[in-house]
Amino acid sequence: MKEIVVISGKGGTGKTSITAAFAQLAGKESVIADCDVDAADMHLLLKPDFAEEEAFYSGQIAHIDQDKCTRCYKCKKVCRFDAIHVTDGTFTVDEIDCEGCGYCEKICPTQAITMYDALSGKTCISATRLNNTLVHAELAIAAEHSGKLVTRVKTLARQKTREEKKNLLLIDGTPGIGCPVTASLTGADYAVIVTEPTISGINDMKRVFDLIKTFKIRAGFIINKYDLNPEKSRDIELFIKENKMDYLGQFNYNENFTKSMTQGETVVEYDAALKTELAKMWNKLKSLIN
Ligand code: SF4
Ligand code: SF4
Q: Which residue's CA is minimally distant from atom 4 of ligand 1?
């Protein structure tokens, strides 16, 4: 089994549109994982059926038993996150503000406080309208630990890929260079970096490339919106050449990337010319990973 992860240093480069296009071109030969859990939108294009759902717990939250609480204020005084509120003499924990440090539980003289696992979201294994399997997730509002959720999505996606005897796991990675993108890249065979010729696009591309080098993963680049700044696009091409990485291809600015997304279609369904370009890139990518 080969794992390809599609990433971008910054959001808005067309990463998800390109991953969904590759998912369509790959057809039944692949399992898809949406690891962009902070802004998951692959489901808008692939219309999954949410057949199998699993709760995702991460971190802890304090809970106060009102029958045991003697209103001594000790927990309120020690909470550095101001997560314990007092309303009409009743002590409660604000689940958003609580960082789960457990200090209040330790100092409570009546054992009124217990820590419980925080429900931080859910993972889903779905059949899609493209007849392949999508493993995806929803992070609860204000929940953290998205790196752990990415790891869970990848674990389930690998299991599913083996169960279905597929050769390919295609991953929509996370933008940026933080913990979630590190989790997206762990164990990957190949990274596709989607970039654009802007100052922030190039800076973020270089930062994510530095991260990829530490994983010793081979990378191929796609330049989107090439014609927005041809000079900077040529700088990117030079960077790819100097670093002996693969150049998968380029697109000029094309509003059909956005239009197809708003119509809930992949860009290969929406635009025949883009389909031809993407098919060339997909075939090149397949030959490189094999
Ligand atoms: S430390 Fe315990 S007993 Fe005191 S106010 Fe907090 S929950 Fe109530
Ligand atoms: S677990 Fe920590 S952050 Fe949460 S309420 Fe207790 S002291 Fe505050």
A: 72
Ligand 2, atom 2: closest residue by C-alpha: 101
| pTM for the full predicted model | 0.86
DSSP 122: E
Three-state SS string over 8-60 comes to CCCCCCCHHHHHHHHHHHHHHHEEEEECCHHHCCHHHHHCCCCCEEEEEEEEE
Q: Which fold has domain 59-119?
A: Alpha-Beta Plaits (3.30.70)
Between 3.65.10.10, 3.30.300.30, 3.40.50.300, 3.40.50.1970, what CATH number should domain 2-47+128-289 receive? 3.40.50.300
Q: Any bridge partners for residue 221, and if so which?
A: 193, 247
> 27-51, pLDDT tens digit by residue?
888 999 999 887 788 888 999 999 9
CA-nearest residue, atom 8 of ligand 1: 69
Give distance in angstroms: CA of 120 to centre of ligand 1: 26
pLDDT at 145: 64
* Ligand 2 binding pocket includes 81 (Cβ within 6 Å): yes
Q: Which ligand is nearest to the CA of 75?
A: 1
Domain spans, the chain: 2-47+128-289, 59-119
